[in-house]
Structures are given as structure tokens and as C-alpha cells.
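Repro case for the chain-ordering regression, as requested:
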Amino acid sequence: MKSIKELQALRKVYIGGVGIVRFQRYDDQEYYDFGSQAILNCLDDAEMEWKDIQSAFCGNVYAGTGKGHQVIAEVGLTGIPIINIEQACSSSSAAFRIGYQMVATELYDVVIACGFEKMGRGLLASTAFKPWELALGFNVQPANYAQGVIRYMTDYGATEEDFARVVVMERKNANLNPYARWYQGGEVTVEEVLNSRVVAAPVRLLHAAAMVDGAVAIILCSEDKLRSNISKQKKIQVAAAVHTTGFYGEDSVKFKSATNLTKEAAKQAYEVSGYGPEDMDVIEAYEAMAPAFLSDVEDLGFCKPGEAPHLLKEGYFDIGGKMPANTGGGLVGCGHPLGATGGRQIIEIINQLWETAGPRQVQGAKIGLCHSSGAGPNAVVTILKR
Amino acid sequence: MTTNEKKQVPVRPGLWTTDEPPSLIGSKCPVCGEVFFPKRERGICIRCQHRGLEEVKLSRRGKIHSFSVIMQQPTQFFVGKVPYAYGIIMLPEVRVQAHFTGCDFKDLKIGMPVEFVIEKLGEDEQGNEVMAHKFRPVKE
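-- result from build under test --
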């Protein structure tokens, strides 16, 4: 493995363009329909043609054989290598990382990282559990989150109101994000969250990210290949892209909690980028269930364990706050099409650094961090800087 | 055994011993001392990678480390009934994930002492009684 210094000496990689389709149900479309639309949006944004793309890395969970190939077949057949990447909810952030590495190591100059997902209708049987675990009903994601949530409440005195405030903040931000499921969806109150039904105590329905469809695409390239004005005028460089999986220990492999691998991914990302949490202007923290936001920002080093609830209450993580987080609404506000979520989080940071985030813009944002996690377990931490 | 008695099958073979009272079966690494549940089928220690784990009986009592009460049907593969409660139990040797029983789920608390029991989870498609390892609250 390369040393930190060697990683820092690799060729610089820049964002050429981004594409997204609104996260919502696409009942009359297949994944390759809205998936290819995200690619077309990305090419337009980058002012590039499909023939400029030298390799494609496609994040998706459920679509099956040759999924990236099916999406790209709707755009063009240029014979380039297309790689399908499944890393559960972190699939497209993992795809982004591989795309970054391909350009950084100078194997390619222009690549595209995609993410797309048409979510099933009704209950989904995760293959991340063994048959006897399914028989025991151990595969309920809200319940597996709940195990950590109840510990967090016991260890730090966090309350149900604290978790509800995460939802309130994210739905407020999603109101301003035209790509979010809950765009113009109205604000919710702490009381509404507390009155929503219990799915797996203490996790409630309004804590959960909605199951929606969606797609994203991001072009990564060398500096000389940048084409669009914004990408050249406000160059965004990938400062770190790190992926970790489970470490043996009580909080990781045994019980699928993401604490240790998130801490490690953040540590490596800070080392490679040369930045620390105090340097970040805007962040994305992964929360398929709202309570996880609190422990994530702690694991990522933005505050000490147990401090996140009172910081949230003070507005610390609001768009106008000291450490704006999940400015596009997070998973709770945007909805969660598994394979598209990681890329959507990265695009939110890109929009903030390009200052194209409209009413949810964080003034003067120059450096941002994006954290994704996924069953496996996986953690992906990306740091972008302008 | 009378004809109307239903056949009992474990949710997974090899989870517990057949002696009385039964115990959960784990694996212990003779090198690093780590204990695993369920036992590691290929006998490799996933902590230190030593090959050749030893089968051990686990303690029958432990304490609740975390829990949740599930109000929604998980998938069609679930054999039990909703609502149900499961969580993590800290045994002296290792943490175990299991259902809770023998109490009102509202009374579950972190740190509560519990003991291992084998109990019916539900019935499979053949009408067999599927048996599972569960933990029930006990007095200190």
C-alpha cells in the first residue's frame, strides 16, 4: 500500500460535471431510463460528449446482471470498460472513489461515476443476512439501528426529542432542494415526529429515509480536461477518497455497527488531505435512520461523543450554523435509493463548493466532507476542496 | 410420542447442547482466547486467524446490552410473530444476539439480568415447530 506521502503525490483529480434526477418514485420508468438521464444531465453539465468518457464505474444494489451496461447502452456503445460496483448504500461513493483512483494513477483522464436505483415495492429481503437470521427476523434495519440508538440514549442521556430534531432540520433543508423527495414538502415539528408510529422502538416512521428511486452521475478528470466554465473557474479537487470495511471488535464485525470503520475512514481521509474536521465548511453525514446522524458527526470528529444533541439544538448543524450538515436534506429529506445515495451526497458537497446550491447555499464554502456507509459493513469518506 | 405432537426443529442446527439444562455452543480460540457465537463452522478465529477453535459451552446468564421492540413484519422468511423483541445480551464470554421472552416488552431495560431458554419461535411451512434460543429476565 502507498504511503500517505505517495498518495498525496498522485495526479490531482477534478470534478468535471454532475448530473442528477430528482429522487422520487418513477413507477413508469426502469432504472436504465432515469439512470441514463442522470448521465445525459452530467455530460451537459460538464460540456462533454459520451465519446470523451474513457471508463465508467456504476454503483447499484438491486438491478442484477450487467446493470451499468444496460444504463450506458441507452447513451452510447463506445466499448469502454464498464465496472459494476455493489457496496450497499455506499455503492456510488465507492464507485466515485475507484473513478478517482483511475484518474489519479493516470490510467485514464476522464471517467464517470454513476449511481442508480429503482427500489423494490414492499418489503425487501436483504441478502446480507443468513437464512436462519431471516427466520429470526434479525434483518430489520430500523431495529438494528435501534440497538445503537438505545445505547446512545443510555450512555449519553439523549432523548427522543433529540432524534426528532434531526428530522426537523433535514426536512427543513429538503424543502429547498429541488432534487429531494421532500422538496417543498413542508416542515415537520418535533411533535409530529414523536407522534409518528414506532417501527422498531425507539425508531419511528418519520426517522426513516423514504424508499424512492433516483440516479446520479459525476465526471472525474485531470485538470487539462476540464471543459465547463464553472468547473474551470471554481476547480474542485478530490482531497481524499477513503473506503474501509469491518474491523474485528465488539462494535464492528459482530454487530454490524459502523462506529470503528467510520472513525478509521475519517482518520485516513484527514491524514491524506492534510485537513481536520475544523477545516470543513460543509459536511454530509449518512443517516438512513435520523438518529444515526448524531453518532456519525461524533465518529467523524466534529464533536465529542454525546455532544451532538445539544449542538444540534443550538443550530450548530443548520445551514447558517457553525458546521452546516446535510444541507440538501440528507437521506431523510432526499429519500434513499440505495445505489444513488452516496453520489447524491457527494453532489451536494460539489454544489456547495461551486456555490450553486441556491437558497441552501453555505456562504464561502471551500472544503467539504462526505460520509457514506453501507451494509457489509462499509464506510466511505470523501473530502473535496475548491 | 403421539401422532398429534408436532416435530420440533431448531432454527439453525448446532446452536445449543442437548444436555439438561441446555447451553449455547460457542467456539474459543486457544491462542488469543476470543469466544464466538454461533460456533465458527470452519474453525478459524476471525480475530487472530488461528485455525483450530475449540467448542465451548456458554454461560446461561447474562445482561441486556441493547434491545429493540419490532412493530413491523420483517420479510416472508420470518418465522415468528410481530411484535417481537430482540437485542444483544452480554454473556461473560461473548455477546449474543437473541429474542427476548417471558416479560412485557415495555419492561425491558439495558443491564437487566436474563437467562437462556429454548422456546418455540413459530411454525415452518411443513408445520414443524421452529425452536429458537431466547433470553428471559431473571432476578439478580
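Ordering looks correct now. The radius of gyration of chain B is 16 Å.
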